Amino acid sequence: MDGMSWPSQSELDGMREKVAQMSGGDAKEVRFVVSPYRICPLGAHIDHQGGTVSAMTINKGILLGFVPSDDSQVVLSSGQFQGEVKFRIDEIQLPKFNNGSNNTIPVMNSSKSEEECNWGSYARGALYALQKRGNFLRKGIIGFICGSDGLDSSGLSSSAAVGIAYLMAFENANNLVISPTENIEYDRLIENEYLGLRNGILDQSAILLSSYGCLTCMNCKSVQTKEYQLIHPPNLLNGQKNSMKSSYKILLAPSGLKQALTTNPGYNRRVTECQEAARILLQASGKEGLEPLLSNVQPEIYEAYKSKLEPSLAKRAEHYFSENKRVMKGVEAWASGSLKDFGKLISESGLSSIKNYESGCEPLIQLYEILLRAPGVFGARFSGAGFRGCCIAFVDADCALGAASFVKNEYRKVQPKLASQIDQERAVIICEAGDCARVI
Question: 318, 408, 416, 426: least buried by Cβ within 10 Å?
């Protein structure tokens, strides 16, 4: 599959018919939310510590077709899950989990039947977020939601893309004017408060703030101000044809692993370890009054007191500080148009995720190593938390097809069982950069 424009006209037409059948209305009245998946080339695992991260969207993602309902009823169907989700827009939504004072996160049931029963949680979570911030909603929606055809979205921020899609649909149906930065906060409420996942604001920010052909750089310490920059390739700044963008493609290589983040204690444990490392470093430097985040630890303080950290905490801190440096270097490489330097930093990020953050599992590590050997690949790493999902790579556009074939064949050799669970037509997907979430 190449980097064709998304969504295609046939996708829009097909969804129009589905929503029209559900609502009994005119297909011409159907509206769409396009909510793309994001990739994070640099800045892995540091957003929850207030680090600086980079991201961009791809031309694949979540498509939600909807019409405002005549009353407060919400009726939703899915292209991925069975059954209908129904609730009223005036129902009071309560969080699924109470985090409690000890910050423990209950484990969610990961069976497919449970997932199918609960697939409407993000829609309810969107209503929860809007209600909590004092928005009055009168109209529900009748909608159909689906992900890009045949794409395993693990590790591509599909949860944030879904939450944002529902937020924007509810807002549009009720004529609410909500800024992208406000929606970052709303989606954080869905993920952190309603669903109980301790992640940062990277995914939401990338989906809502990115711009076609640019690298989005965000300071995640500025949760309130949502500080970010769009880093343009040099040829865009000069008003020339975007030759840099046309010179690369993005490879998505799914592993076949499908475990959900909230079922794996490793993700939340790493967050806790980073906070513990920050607490020890701040205490050693006489700044224990600061919030225990590694972004509150100055690099010179880390260097002076890192010997006080036990080995596992030392590794987490080393990943944070080295990754922050890679983001800064990556911004410079992107702005100068050096895909080779940018790719090298991506691969170094991938290695640190394995060695220092210890987030990889064997299939993902094998996939990462295969991508590094593929022809024309500038750089590769895990996408997402590294406990499931896929790997991403930036590749020379002229080598994309050959690289995709190489990766597919080599992965099948080392993981035949997992590879057999992946649609071989989409075992490696070739994508392009995308744009921000929007209503069309």
Answer: 416
Q: State yes or no: is 341 an active-site residue.
A: no
207 with 436: CB under 8 angstroms? Answer: yes
Letter string b/e over residues 318-328, b meaning 16 or more CB atoms within 10 A of that residue's CB: bbbbebbebbe
Identify the pLDDT of residue 440. 93
- Which residue in 47, 152, 187, 203 is the catalytic one? 203
How far apart are alpha carbons 201 and 405 in whole angstroms? 34
417: tokens are 């069982």
> What b/e sequence results for 4-31 when a residue is b if at least 16 CB atoms lie within 10 Å of its CB, and e otherwise?
eebbeeebeebbbebbbebbebebeebb
CA–CA gap between residue 218 and residue 73 (Å, rounded): 37
What is the distance between the alpha carbons of residues 111 and 433, in angstroms, rounded to a whole number? Answer: 33
| Distance, CA of 353 to CA of 347 (rounded, Å) | 10
The model's pLDDT over 13-24, given as tens digits with 9 standing for 90+, comes to 999 999 999 999
Task: Compute the chain's Rg from CA coordinates.
Answer: 21
Q: Which one, of 278, 176, 167, lies nearest residue 221 by Cα?
A: 278
